[in-house]
Amino acid sequence: MAEPPPPGEGHAMEIPWSSTGHRETGATALVMASRFQLKTPWRAPAFLLHSLRLWRQARRAPGALGVSLRARPLRGTFWTLSAWTDREALYRYARTDPHGAVMRKIRPWTRDAQFRFWELPVIDLPRDRNAAAALWEEADRHLALPFSPRRAA
Predict the structure, then answer these.
(1) Which is nearest to 133 in space by CA: 17, 3, 32, 9?
(2) Averaged pLDDT in 10-residue chunks for the chain of 153 residues
(3) Which of 24, 87, 95, 150 counts the most CB atoms within 10 A of its CB?
(4) For the CA atoms of the chain, what is the radius of gyration?
C-alpha cells in the first residue's frame, strides 16, 4: 500500500483532523479509515470536490466525533479517517445524501476501495490538528492489513 506522505511533501494534501465537539469522556469511539485508488487520476478533481462535500456533511452528522482527509490527486489516491459514537451513526451518515448518492456515482471510478474499523476510547481521540499523527499512523497500519471479517465486525 502506498503510504501517504507527510503534509506538504510532494503533491499530497490534507484536511487536518477536525473534532466535532461531540465528546463523551470514557465512551468508546468507532474509528473508520478508508483508502480509495482511482482507475485513472483524471477523475481526481471531481473525486476531490465530492470528498470535500462529504467531509462537510460528516462534520455536521449526528454521532460524528472527528474527521480528516488526505489525498495524492496526481496518483488518484484518497484516504479518509473518521470517528463516530457508534456503528449506527456511521451507517446513518453513509446512507444519507449527499453521501449515498456520491458513493453510487464514484464507485465505477475506483479500482480499489478499502475500509477498516476499530474501537478507541473517545478520550484518546485527537483534540486538535497536531495530535492526529498517531491516529493516522494507526490507520495506515490497519489499511496495510489484509481484510478480515473479524476485524470488520
Answers:
(1) 17
(2) 48 85 72 96 94 94 94 95 95 94 92 95 85 91 78 49
(3) 87
(4) 15
